[in-house]
Amino acid sequence: MSVQDTYSGIAALSICEALLLALNDARVLPESEIMSILKDAAATHENAGVDVDDVDPEMHRAVSALINRIIAGGNSVRRT
Prior knowledge:
Shape: globular
Order of helices and strands: HHH
Strand content: under 5%
Number of helices: 3
Radius of gyration: 14 Å
Largest sheet: none
Distance between the termini: 38 Å
Number of domains: 1
């Protein structure tokens, strides 16, 4: 993965987290829905390549672990 890809990924993550916070602050989505979105995203990567040969299962595991750290840290939701 190139440095530019890394920067693009970090920017995308920051934008998504900001959007989730804004959706919660504006009461468009409740915290429970935001947590469900994050859990679904983590599960998608946890299960990637289970039934087929995946190009990079290690990457999927790392992405899932990162999303789970975001969930645990509460970065995308201002918890009440």
